[in-house]
Write a structure and sequence with these properties.
The strands form two sheets. A six-stranded antiparallel beta sheet has the order 1-2-3-9-8-5. Helices cover about 20% and strands about 35% of the residues. By secondary structure, it is of the alpha+beta class. A hairpin with a 4-residue loop joins β2 and β3. It has a single domain, classed as OB fold (Dihydrolipoamide Acetyltransferase, E2P) (Beta Barrel). The N and C termini lie close together (about 10 Å). It is built from four helices and nine strands; from the N terminus they run βββαβββββααβα.
């Protein structure tokens, strides 16, 4: 069974978003997503200051099985990308909710996300 953390919100496309409390957010892919993809071999991250529109693909995670796009949950601006993933993409597998986060972003329009209970229901 996939780990789902109560302190995050989730998208239909299996990304998690953590509200940092200051109009900034941290984002990654869920435990369910990383398990389906398998061992990560590469993560293509956006650049700091990139502006991304809602539902646009802005990041790619590549595993031994497949490459998968990561989609924006809102209109946002990237403020940090997890550079540790350049050398250790496997952090997405071993620590998807902690060390394996993908980006931090600013946004005033993060809406329509699921809480942990709703996300668990779509996995069942």
């Amino acid at each position: 069974m996939s780990e789902i953390r109560d302190d995050r919100q989730y998208t239909q496309t299996h990304e998690w978003i953590l509200d940092n409390g200051d109009d900034t957010y941290t984002m990654g892919i869920t435990d369910h997503a990383q398990a389906l993809l398998g061992d990560m071999v590469f993560v293509e991250l956006p650049n700091v200051d990139d502006e991304v529109s809602i539902d646009d693909e802005f990041c790619v995670v590549e595993s031994v099985k497949a490459a998968s796009g990561v989609y924006s949950p809102a209109d946002l601006q990237i403020i940090e990308a997890n550079e540790a993933l350049d050398d250790e993409p496997e952090l997405v597998n071993s620590s998807c909710y902690d060390d394996g986060w993908l980006v931090k972003f600013k946004s005033h329009s993060v809406v329509d996300l699921m809480d942990s209970t709703a996300y668990a229901q779509i996995l069942n």
